[in-house]
Structure formats: structure tokens, C-alpha cells
Amino acid sequence: PKRSPSRPTRTMMSSKLRYLVMFLGVQLVVMALLYREGYQKRVAYFFRILRKGEVSQATTVMQPATHNVTDPRFRDIYANLSLQAKSTVKEELLPYCPTESPLISGPFRVTFPSKLTLEDVKRKNPLVVRGGRYRPPDCESKHRTAVIIPHRNREHHLKYLLYYLHPFLQRQQLNYGIYVIHQAGNYTFNRAKLLNVGFKEAMKEEEWTCMFYHDVDLIPEDDRNLYTCDRHPKHVSIAMDKFGYKLPYNTYFGGVSALTPEQYLKMNGFPNNYWGWGGEDDDIAVRVALSGMLISRPSVQVGRYKMIKHEHDKGNEENPKRFNLLAKTRRTWKQDGMNTMEYRVLSKEYMPLYTNITVDIGSEKGLHPRT
Ligand code: BGN
Question: How does the record say this protein sits in the membrane (predicted)?
Fold first, then answer.
């Protein structure tokens, strides 16, 4: 028969165990108290050392910009991004990036520091090259994503968007480019036509596999929101702070959306005739349905965006014709869109953080109206 430990040994063990449990209990209570007292950073630091057993890692976490990686309210989108290793392997021999990027970390803090400059953004993104292009340094991305941003007089917003978008896309290990399509002149703004121009101009440069059509004032808040395309056109900005992090209505397609070139061409692109605010995004949603496609969406947990607060723009007043136009989309979508857009590129500048395309898109009367 097996011998069980003698009675005194068992008592000794159980009393040791009791002390250990008591000791750990006291530790936990102290930690909880400290945490309540506002020592979150230090406590998190301690836990991190326990978990990783790596003081060097923990030291980098203590730097001001990267503190408290566990709490999304403090997580810095740039944290540890510079640790990406430059590979010594020749570019054409790089392995494919993994299906899930190991750099993705979930929600991050979005604030708008008043002192931020484009120079700062540039300094923080040393691997971004001329024209706002990037490819992962250590692997070959399976995704080539172009971000198209319609723009006029919103330099301030653009700076913040670039500040967050560059590290966000790098964390996803994408091969990407950022295009700002700047409407020249003072005539009423036309978002959808600028998006059409963005598609055409970006595709001249590279075989992008996915286009993100992106408002300048929307900042993503979670890097699990992948900037890649789905089987169906994707409406991406589904949980905006402005709408209480919910969809304002079921067919809403505004803010940020993503389509493959095939999906875009199948629906004849976007309408060219919505001048001013509103309705063009609803028209795009109708086109998706009319061309026999569905709308795909990320989950509400990750499709979160913060909108930079601003006044209504001059030159982008509500479009009174939008109701009539929208009622006619079924009849007009094949005659107006990708196949009919007229525009004139005035300049194309390869800026350090984006490609700036300034374009004359004319007016309702056409590109060169006779006066
Ligand atoms: C809708 C607008 C959208 C806008 C959302 C959110 C119209 C068309 C009415 C028939 N649509 O009302 O363009 O993105 O609100 O602000 O105005």
C-alpha cells in the first residue's frame, strides 16, 4: 500500500500553504487599494514585470508615450511600432506577412493635441516614403490598400488623421498609400466626384486591391478594424461618437467605406452630380443594391470612430436637390458615374505623408461651361 505523508509533515505543508495564501491575499488587497488610490500606472507596471519577467520590456512601457498598455484609454497607437525590424533579406525574397498581424493591439487613445505639427507626424513615421507610401519592412503584405481622402480647407483635420492613420495602417502590416484629393476653386464641394477622381488617379499608379474612401474628420479608434476589403462593399464607420457609437439608420453608408476595384466598377463608381452636403452616400448605398451586391460591416466593437468637431463648411451647404436625385438613382446610375466623370488634374505633389492631387471638377454646368 502507498504510504501517505505522516501527520506532522501534512500539517507543516498545509500551514505553509496557508501562509502563502494569506501573503498573496494581503498583496492583492494592497494592490487593489493602491489601484483605487490612483497608482494604476505603477500597479500595471508591476503586473507586467510579473507576467513577462522582462525588465527591459517593462522599462520601455514606462516611457510617457507608451504607458499603461493594458488600458485602452492610455494606449498609444505608436507604442513599440519602431521596434519593427528592418529585414536584411532582399525585398523579393521576403516571406508573406502572417494572416493576422502581430502588431495589432485593439483600442487606442485618440486626442487632438493643439501643438501637433506635420513635422511631428513625419518624424514619428520614419518608414513612410514619398507620397505617403509604406510597405512592411520585414514581410510582403498580401494587401495593397489606397486611402482616398476628399479635401478642401481642412488642413487641421488632415494633420490629425495622418497622425493616427499611418501607425494604424502599419500595425495592420499593409502595403498602403494615402491620396488626398483636393477640390480646386470655391465652387460647391462634391465629395462623391472627388472619390471617383481618387479611384482613377490612384489606380494609374499601382494595382491597389482595395480602396478606402475616407472622410478627413473621422479617426478610427481600434486597430482591429482592418483596412482590407471584403467579398461585398464594406461600410466601415458604423459606430461614430457623433451618433452615440451606433448606426444612425440601417442603410447608412457615409464616413468611411471600402470597395475592391471590381466592386467599384460593377456599380459604375459613385455619382458625380451631388453638389453640397448630403445624399451622395445614400446614393452609393442604393448603387450597391442595384448592382446586386450586399453591404458588409465590421463589428460595432471595432468599427468605432471619433469625429473631429467642426462648424458646417462654407461651400458645402446642404444640397436641396438631394431628395430628387436620390429618387432617380435607379434610372441614372448607369449613365452617371465612373464612365462619365470629367475632371482636370491641376497638380500632383508627392508630399512626405501623402500624395496631393489638386483637381478641377467643374460645376453642375460641366468642366468648361460657356459663360
Ligand atoms: C442623412 C444624409 C446623409 C448623411 C447622414 C448622416 C440625406 C438624404 C436624404 C434623402 N442623407 O440624412 O448624406 O451622411 O444623414 O449625417 O440627406
Answer: Single-pass type II membrane protein
At residue 78, the pLDDT reads 96
Q: What is the pLDDT of residues 300-334, one digit of tens each?
A: 999 999 999 888 788 999 999 999 999 999 999 99
Q: How many domains does the chain have?
A: 1
Decide if 232 contacts 258 (C-beta within 8 A).
Answer: no
- Best CA proximity match to 361, nearest among 200, 155, 154: 200
In a domain, residue 70? The reply is no
Query: Could you tell me the distance, in angstroms and rounded to a whole number, from the CA of residue 264 to the centre of ligand 1?
Result: 21
CA of 279 relative to ligand 1 center, distance in Å: 5
Q: Which of 365, 349, 357 minimizes the C-alpha distance to 152?
A: 357
Residue 289 is predicted with a pLDDT of: 98
pTM, entire model: 0.81
CA 200 to ligand 1 centroid distance, Å: 26
Q: How far is the CA of 187 from the centre of ligand 1 (A)?
A: 21
Return the ligand 1 atom nearest residue 255 CA.
14
Phi-psi region of 9 (alpha: psi -120 to 50; beta: other; left: phi over 0): alpha
The ligand 1 site (C-beta within 6 Å) comprises 248, 254, 278-279, 281-282, 322-323, 326
Atom 15 (ligand 1): residue with closest C-alpha? 278
Q: Could you tell me if residue 22 is inside a domain?
A: no
Overall average pLDDT of the 156-179 stretch: 98
Residue 301's domain comprises 104-360
Residue 43 belongs to some domain of the structure: no
In angstroms, the Cα distances linking 269 to 202, 259, 296, 338 are 14, 10, 17, 5
239-273 pLDDT, tens digit each: 999 999 999 999 999 999 999 999 999 999 999 99
Cα 189–192–196 angle (5° rounding)? Answer: 120
φ and ψ of 180, to 5 deg = -105, 120
Give the pLDDT band of residue 61 (cuts 50, 70, 90).
very low
CATH code of the domain in which 326 resides: 3.90.550.10
Phi, psi of 283 (to 5 degrees): -60, -40
- Is residue 34, in this structure, part of any structural domain at all? no
